[in-house]
Specification:
- The chain is built from 4 helices and no strands.
- It is an all-alpha fold and about 90 residues long.
- The chain has one domain.
- The longest helix has about 30 residues, at about 25-60.
């Protein structure tokens, strides 16, 4: 099995090799999906960072502001969970 990163970095080589072997592979679609997967992971990481930042700030704010920060943290985690389910993990 080929490494996903190797395939993404060597699209032309993989396409040529598949042609020589008579294999039908949509390498362009693979590359497209890999780009989408990486963007999704960046979005998940960003949301998790924001949720962590919000969680850390909850103890430092006035009690009146805590509930809104807790709600914001929940929203960020839910959004992250939705993206993770779209990613398949």
């Amino acid at each position: 099995m080929l490494d996903r990163r190797f395939v993404a970095d060597n699209i032309d080589l993989i396409t040529e090799n598949c042609c020589l072997r008579g294999a039908s592979v949509d390498v362009a679609r693979f590359a497209e999906l890999d780009i989408l997967r990486r963007q999704l992971q960046l979005d998940i990481d960003r949301l998790n960072q924001e949720a962590g930042r919000v969680s850390k700030s909850i103890g430092k704010v006035d009690p009146g502001e805590r509930e809104s920060l807790k709600a914001e943290g929940r929203r960020l985690r839910e959004e992250s969970s939705v993206l993770q389910s779209r990613q398949g993990g």
